[in-house]
Structures are given as structure tokens and as C-alpha cells.
Amino acid sequence: MSLQFVLGPAKMDHRRTMVAQLVATLMAKPQDQFFYLVPNHIKFDTEVDVLNRLAQAFGQPDLYAQTQVQVFSFTRLAWYLMKNEAAYQVPRLSAAGIDMLLYRILQRHADELRLFGGEISQTGFVTQLAREINELQTANLQPEDVVQLAANAQAGDLQAKLHDLAIVYKDFVAATADKYLKPADILVQLNAYLRRQDLHGTHVYVELAGFAQLPAQEQGIVTTMLEQGADVTISLMLDHKVVDRAPENGTLFYQSGRLYYRLYQYARIRQIPVSQDIYAETPRVAPGLVALDDFWRGQPQAATGYEEPNTNVHLFRTDSRQTELAQVGRMIRAMVAKKHADPADDYHYRDFLIMTRHLDAYQTMLAPTFHELEIPYFVDLQRSMADHPLVELINALFDIDAQQYQYRDVMRVLKTELLMPNINGQPMDRQAYRQAVDLTENFILKSGYHGQRWVQREDWQYFQLTEGDAGVETDQNAEISRQINLIHHFVAETLPPFFKKMRQAPDGKAAVTLLVNFLTSQGVTDQLLAWRDQALDRQDVRAAAEPEQTWQTFCGMLDEYVTILGAEPFEITDFLALLQAGFEGASYSQIPSTLDQVLISESGMVQSQDHKVVFMVGATDLVMPDRIMTNNLLSDVDKENLQLTLSSLDGDHYLNDSAVVQLGDESCLNYLAFLSARRHLFFSAPLKDDQETDLNWSNYVRRIQRQFNLREHTYLGTPDPTNADARPFVGTKRRTISHVIQVYRDVLTTNTDRNRVGAPLQPAPVWVWLRQQLTRDPQFGELARQLMAGLSYRNQPVKLTPASVEALYGHQIYTSISKLEEFYRNQYAYFLKYGLKLRERDVFELSAASTGEFFHAVLDGLIKALRSDQIPLAQASDQQLGQYLETVTRQILDQPQFTILTSSNRMAYLQRQLINTVRQIAFAIRNQSKLSAAEPKQTEILFGNVGKEHGLKALDFQIDATHSVHVRGKIDRLDQIQVADQSYLGIVDYKSSQHKFDFQEAYYGLAMQMLTYLDAVLHNEQALVGSDQAAVKLAGALYMHIQNPTLKPKDIQGGFEAALLKKNKYKGILLDDPQLLEHLDSELQQGNGTSKVYPFARKKDGSYSGGRAASLVTNDQLERLLQHNSQLIIAAAEAIFAGEIQLNPIRLNDKTTALQYSPYLSIMQFDAMLAENAYRDLPPLSAKQVLDLLKTQKGGENHE
Length: 1200
What we know:
It is an enzyme of class 3 (hydrolase). Pfam families: ADDB_N, PDDEXK_1. This protein is α/β, with parallel strands linked by helices. It has seven domains: 2-89 and 184-284, P-loop containing nucleotide triphosphate hydrolases (Rossmann fold, 3-Layer(aba) Sandwich); 95-180, no CATH class; 289-381 and 593-715, 3-Layer(aba) Sandwich (Rossmann fold); 389-584; 727-792, no CATH class; 814-843 and 938-1044 and 1114-1182, no CATH class; 844-930, no CATH class. It is built from 42 helices and 29 strands. The longest helix has 30 residues, at 475-504. 36% of the residues are buried. The model is unreliable at 299-305, 467-472 and 1195-1200 (pLDDT under 50).
């Protein structure tokens, strides 16, 4: 029985000294038992290394076996000693099971808890509580100890926390005692077991040199071993003994010094012999790292500088984190590729360790960077299971039932691809399934189906109506309906019976049985196995392990649930919450996929000291030292107060260190990380973060740089074309070609700069050579040539071939005028929208188009109803008009396309707003009619619609012998004014926003609607007036803004009705015909003034004016406008048939562009900075300029 310390700084080979002591004792006492204990995290590597050293010591380097020496972690030692003990055979309770049990305890005691009761539903709280319970156990605190601490605490938050912890902890211990073995119980059981053993002849070697702390439970095992007669040797990272008093917080070796002091005092009080300290004396690191160790342990203020160049410590900065990782990868590849005279000096991937304080900032970059560099790597961090599709399936499955089949929940289940329909007894093909799910999602987004719609037996009917449809279901629509209903009926036939059985389950065991049977029968386990096999085929061992681990964890939680709560009445809500709590604490077991791979970890974790090279990435002042943030139920202040009272309890009790203590340990933690390297230590940091904020070197690094006068290298993500040193950018062929492309792109951009002077830029010869090598490579050359060809790519669409034009458009174009307006805004957008027929998916929403359709339908129905009953609109009373409106509105709202207006309370409110608006407009139109001789003749007049029995002729234009264009449309309202034998026909277009007739846009083809509609009226005048003898003139084209205007007090000074008339005043163009204008507004027949209804005024001399808007045009001017509009239609059709698809978005008045609201930006990739991409700027034109241009232009001349 004795205690022996092996001391020394991190630069020394502690293990060499420990193994030497072990060998000497083993040779002297070969029949004794030897245990070599290390942290679980590095057990495997340590075991291999210790056995290799023993083999060398005993002269058996090729083949060596040892039965007396065991290398274990503390938990593995428990298994070795107690595997046949009854106490060790009880069922294990996993972290997930602990969370489930704690959740149930919190529920049971919710009324007694002062603080924790309200936190049960908070995400992460149960896991946080589990950590706190575990800390109490590892501190050797029993429930009665916590009760005593609560009683002694002053009233306040701490007392309330301890009160709640005591209740939960007591119930937790009672629920698990002799029933389950928790992770924290294993060491308690081991301690109890050791107290019953005679350990004389047992030699224990505890290696703590690679880290600083030993938890209270493990300290208890060491002291028990000493008491029971074992010889214990402990290696500590400590350069001096600590016997008289405990070290002060903040000193470099505070943690190991404190442990030395505690164990020394323990042995001294119990008169256990303490042998003379042994110091490790053999350096395990290169000379430059020895110097770093000496410097770090000295007084930086008194340092005189390192006289010899330090070739083992290196610094570099990069322009970004991504460049930083790429540079680390290139260095690793270069070092592995270099061969030395002595093979022992060669590097393997396993010789490299990449560390940073927190990996979060690099997490998303690791896989793409190292895969591209073809570097095998292993991230040594636990990953949560919470995001696995199986977990999502379970959560979403029960959410469907709880939320009554909401869209999001059903889609969450379907998109896990774990529940899939069977076709002829086999799982549905995955690609076909995805297509069906996507179509179903589009359909329900469009139709708003949710809730009981999912479980109805009737088929869902898919329809897609577009302009020109004849109302006949197509084969394509029928196929889409089939796919949608496949998913619909799968949900309807699969889920409701399952939910019904679950609700009827009498207890937890029955419910779990139903759930497992359901998942198994639906092929979930088969799908998980298929995922595993697919990952193995890809040689992705990590991904292959995830499905099995998740399913095993899930089944383990169900077993624990049945054991704990299986006999109790089943509650779905509680069951799901317990599963969620369980998965919250579950993580994957990390399994390296190969022995030779780069290790990536965090500097706060225990690391093996066998790595030859360490990269400390992200070495900024934000994380070195780290900003310690605690997220524990017991705060640092709570722990400080508790630590003062723990001494009053029996036994040794040590809580986890507070943030203050941890911050004091940062220097030691980083010291251990630095000295993890044996040959080389690299510090790196980006110059800026992702938000372009400047980042600075850590003060630790600055001190090291000053001490050793280290040169700092800077690496950029983009190479300098003129730099002959390409080594920082040479990696794999794929990685290197990307940098070659960057160089040649830079050269091309520079040489095409219009402002450049001097000789053309030429790339350095090394880049020319690299390009040649890569493009001529037998395996990689074809891809390299394709990638290099991208340099000559121009973002410019290629003209369509005649065959493509015919396939897309045929020989005849049937079009609305708005499509041709799109063509004039941007030819390529027209091609995407109407050639390829790309469009955004429909959603169940009240769009501007939907509200416009409602307004049009109501006003159309109102006027037709009045005409049917032979009631002139101007003579309809307020009561009559209100009754007609109510009837028509009710009929319109019953139509399927307006069901959205009854889908929610918000939509019901919007429905009332729409009804109020259309009512106001109807009364406004009636009041306008009272002042005018114009009467609505027809509404919603179709012209040129294929498949319609009623309607007017299309506007037909023959382009050439084989091509033609036919324009169709719908006129909202046609007004007629009869003056003696002269008929005037005018059109009114309803708009949901302010519109006016824009001569400039009409000239450029951006606003052709009104002129096209007037032309259609002119071509169908006889059919419209019902006589081929009548004299007909066009009255004009007017916009009416559909609105329920807001009136200010000043607006109604002239009367309320007059104010409303002014707000609803027509805008547009009218024929400058005195006879017409005189009858348009009866108030102006006897005097002058501005019309309240129409956009004109009568002057004192009796003439008429259109004002600034140039609303009045002569007959000749109107004819020229119509002729020019026809020319625009023909010119557009000619360009379309010629295959023109230029990316030529217009820009008007230096602010309005064709791309402002385009849904195709990601396809167009338009960039005005590119030489080949430029806006088509349209010179601004006034109304007078347009009319003058049309007067001087001759027929057929280009409008631009």
C-alpha cells in the first residue's frame, strides 16, 4: 500500500516513466495484478502504445502478449472486475431513459416544485436537469445531503432550486435503486466492490498527464484502492510538489496541483506511505516545442527572447475560414506525400490533429473541403440523434393526430421517406414516390386541403386551367390526379386506423406494442436497413451506423418506457413528450471509418499525445482564452455558496468548477493543446469572419510570436496570376483546377477592363504548366477542359433553331396581349414563361389576381342582372342596387375558387372588406351613370377564345405564308353612347391599382392592352351594335380603380357624393369629339369646368381639354396608335417565330426595370456588370412626342 506521484511538464514523456516503473515492478513481482488507467476517450490508443512499449522493454517487438497488465478506463475496469457480480447485471438506464424518467418525475411532482414545475415543457430543460443530477452523483452527494443543503441555504432562488432538486433526486434514486444501473452508478458500484476486496498485490497506474482533472467519484476509487492495499502511481502534469497548502486559482497547474494536494493530504492523514516523487525527464517533443513549454511555464514579462530559430512552431493567417481549412488540408497532403530517408519520419494522416476551441464555426466547411482534398478525417465530437428521419417520423406522426392532419405535419411524415406505399407488394420506387409527394404538396398548397380532407374516401380531383383550355380533362391531368390520390389514399388508409388503436390502448405496454408493430409492418425497419446498405455501398461507415443506432436507441427507450410506465394508463401526449425528452439526450456512437485519418476535435477535450503535428485553427482572441458561458441550473454563485457548506457533510464532495475557475484554467487547457504535438505546431486564424468583421490573433499567440520572433504567413483564397509560387494552391486535381480557373478568370477580367493601360496581363509560367498538365491528364483531362471552357461562357441565350421554335410554338400563336407585353419587356422571360411554360407553384392564398377576379365577377353579374330585368343602371335605387348586389355576391362566393374566403377568421374579415369595396364601386358606377349618357352595353366580353361558343372574333395577323398570330382577350365592360345616328363604343377596364394610359409604354409595346381591346371592338363593331348599317366610332379606353377610398375632412367639403365621384374618376384616353364629350358629362353641357367622371375639362370657349394627361386624342391620332399597336404585335410574332430569345430586360426612366418582380432571376443569372448583360434603356417620351413620332413614321418602320 503506497502512493507514488510521477511529475513533470507537458514536454516530458510521462508514459515512458510510468511504463518504466510498471516494467520494474512487473519483473520483480510477475504474479501481481497491474492496471493502467486512462480516460475513456483515449483508452484504445493508450492500450496499443503501452503494450508496444512493454514489448520493446521485454525484447519482444514482433509478437507480445500480456495477461497481468490491463489498460482500462475507470468504467472498463468496473466491467472487468464486476462482470459476474449480481449488482452489475441489472438493466442499464441510458441517457435517453434517464431523461424519460426525469420527465415523468417532474410531471408527478409538478404541484410541489417551486421553480421546475413551469419548465417541464421547455426544450432542453430535462437534459439540463439530467446533467445536474449526474453532477450531484459524481460529487458523491446523496438525496439526504441535498435536503440538508436546502435546509441550510438562505431563502431565495438557491433554496428553491435545492428544494426542487431534493424532491426530484430523491424520487429518481428511489425509482432506479436496485432496478437500473445508471452511468453514474457504475463507479459507485465499483467503489463498493473495491471496499470488499484485498488489493495487496495490485498495482494501479493512473495516467493524468494529458489532462488536469479527476472527478470526485474517480478520486474516491483511487483512495479506496489505497485503503485496500493497492500500490497507486499517478502521473500529473505538474512541475513541483504541492504539500503544504492548496494552489491558488489561476496558476498554470491549479487543477493538477489541487489533486496532488488532496491525495497527498488524504494519504498523510490515513498514514498511507507516500513515495518520493519521480520526475519524467525524457522530452517527448521537438526542441522548438520544448522551448515553448519552458516559455509558457516561465514569466513572460522577464523573457529575453528565444535565440535560436524555432522551426517547430508556425503561424499563418488567411482571408477566410474556408481558405484556412483548405490551407491546412494542402499542408497535410504535402507532408503526407513527402517521403524521408527513414520511413519512421514519414507522415500518415493519423499523425495530424486539427483543433479549435469550438468547431461550430467550421462544421459546415469540413466535409466539402476535406472531401475535395481527398483527405480521410474523423470528427471527434458527439452528434445528436434528434435530427434523424426516424425521430422526425415519430414526432410528426403524433403531431398529425394531435393537430388534425395539418399540411406541415403530413408533409413531415411523407418526406422522411420511411412510410411509403407498397405497389404490388413492393415498396414504391423512391423517385416515383418523391414525384408523387411533390405533386401532392403542390396540390394541397393550391387547394388549401387539410384536416378531414386527408381522410375522406373520395378522390381528389386535380385540375389546371390555363388560357385556351376547353374544359376537358387531359391525360396529363388524369395522371397527376392518379399520383396525388395514391398519396392521399395511402395517408387515409394507413394513419386513421393506427391512431384509433393507439387511443384505445389500455396501458403503456399495449401502446408500445402497437407502435412497433405499425412501424415494422409499414416497412420502416426495412427502409432503415436499406439506408444502411446504401451507405455501406458508398463506403460511408459513419452514415451506415446511424439507422441501426437510431432504431436501437428507439427500441431501448421503448423497453425502458415499458419497464417504468408500461402498466400505467396510456396518454399519447405524455408518451410523445417522454420520447422527445429521450431523443433530446441521445447521441450517436462515433466509429472511425479507418485507422489512418486526420483527427478533428476541440481543444477542451482530452487528446492523445501521439500526434506528430497539431493545427490550432481559429486561434483568435474570441476563443483563446475562451469566453466561458455556463448553462447550468445551479449558477456559479450557487456553487460557490454550496462549496462553503459541503465541508459540513461526511465524505469528499466536489462540484464541477465554476466559470471563474474554468477561465483560470484556460492557460493550462491551451498549454496541453499546444503540447499535444510532438514535432510541429501550427497556429492559424482568418482575417475576417463570415460577417466581414475583423478578427485578431489570440493574445496567447501574440506572446508566442514575440517570444520566438515567428514569421507570419498570409494565404489568400484566390491566387495572384503573376506569382510563380503556386504551392499554396496545389492539392487534388479537382482542387487545383479550381485555382487555375481563378487565375485565368482574373487574367481575362483584367485584360478586358476598358480602363486598363499597358501590356496585357499574362499568368506566371507555373499556371500555364498546371493548366496543360490538368487538361492533358488521361483521367481528369476531359473534366478539366469542360471546366476551363467556362471561362469563355457568356450569359447570353442562343437563338432557337427552327425545329425548336416549331416544337414550342407551332405555326400559329394564340396569345393574350399581356404575353406580348412580356416579350417586349424581356424576350428571354417570354421564352421561359410561355415557351418552356415555367411557373411558380400555386398556393392557397388571396392574391391580387383572386381579388380582381372577384370584383370582375360581381360587377359583371350585377350589370347583367339589371339588364335582364330591364332596369337601367342610372335609374336603380339604393335599395334595388343593394338587393341585387347581395344576391350576386352570394352567388359568386359560392363558386369553388372563392372558398378561400371562408377558410379562416382572417379570410372572413377580408371577405367583408371585399364586399364593402365592390359595393362602393357599384354605387359609384351607378352615380356616374346618372351624369352621363354612356350606358354599360356588355360586360366580360370575350374575343378570340378557342373552344367558346359565344364571343367575338380574334385579332388575326398573317406573318408569312405559314405563320400567323391570333390575339384573344376579355373586355371588362363595353359602354355605348348613342348621339342621334352616331354610336360611340368605349371600353372600361377595372384595375386594383391606379392606372393611366401611358403613351410612352404603349409606344414601346409595354402597355398594349387598351389599344388591342379597342382594335378588337373596331373589328367586331357590327356584331356589337347589332347592325351592319350603324355608324360606329370608338369613344376611348378608360381605367377604373377598384377601391374603397379613404376620405379626409378636406375632401368632403364639396359634398360626400362629389368626393366619392372624384376618387372613382375614370382615367385613360377619349376621342376628342365635341359631340361625344358633350354627352359624356351632363353637368358640362351648359357650362365649363372639370368633369367629375371623365378625364377632361370644358373651357370657357366651349372647347375641350385633356389636361396634362393628354387624355383627348383625335380620330387620326387614335388610328395611328391602333396601327402602331398592330405593328408591334406583328413584330413580336416575327421575332418569336425567328427564335429570338434575347436576355434584354428593359429599363425605363432609370428606375423601372423588367426584372424587379421577375420570378426567373435565378434562371436568367442577369448581371449588369457583365459586358454581355445590359439593360435595354428606353428613352423617355412624352405623349406629344409619341404622337409626333407616329405622325412622322411610315408604315412598317421599326418602332424603335
